[in-house]
Amino acid sequence: MARDRMIVVTTETVSGHRIVEVLGLARGNTIRARHLGRDIMAGLKSMVGGEIKSYTELLTKAREEALARMLEEAEDMGANAVVNLRFTTSSVMQGAAELFAYGTAVRMEPE
Amino acid sequence: MHEIVLILASVMFGIPFGIFVLVAVQGGLRDGRRRRFVARELARSDVLLVNTKGLLTADPSHPPQVLSATVVRCLDDSRHAMAIFRTKLGGEVRTMTRLTLLARDEVTMRLKELARASGYDAVVNIRYETSQVLATSVEIFAYGTGIVRL
Hints:
heterodimer; A: alpha+beta; Translation Initiation Factor IF3; four-stranded mixed sheet; 42% strand; B: alpha+beta; 5 strands
């Protein structure tokens, strides 16, 4: 997986590493819909409150997918690290959520 | 008598359906052309886009400036129907993913064009915002700071 080969951080620099080339923005997104069966369970759950585990799991998986797509794009640009990673989540239609990850693709060398 | 009813029915339903299909096909072709054009423009490396603050050093003799671009896109009716069907089943809504991808590429390209037109060669600290304007449409807003690199 690209994740294991790459340094991915939310900061702009990594200590002990020098950025040799800035390659540009890398982006990845996915839009996930909920499951009707899970919807019914979530509806019941919202009567009592608390964590909706199936949705937590769904969004975690979707966010992983967006991150993987971003890393793929970064790899295609020839990067070995992504700095300043940001996640955004938004609702783009009824019953679906968009997960979007973006960061700056760079080439790094240990100092 | 029956023939007349049949002909009338096929005209009444056939023409609107034909228009529906033609419009969807035309929209698909137009989007494909636009996607290829935008991808080509994005691949040009004259303006560097990053979302960091400090990686690139700006030339102090050129004042930086906020640059922003926005685009609102919507799905055609048939793909929207598919998307709604998908929200009942669960899983990835591919038509919407493709729509936001295209919109985000478009807005990134506009930001790049704006930077080039304003005489900058890099846009730093880029941020993306996504919002829903109508039930079937997506707004993507991108903003950043245009600088001239040292």
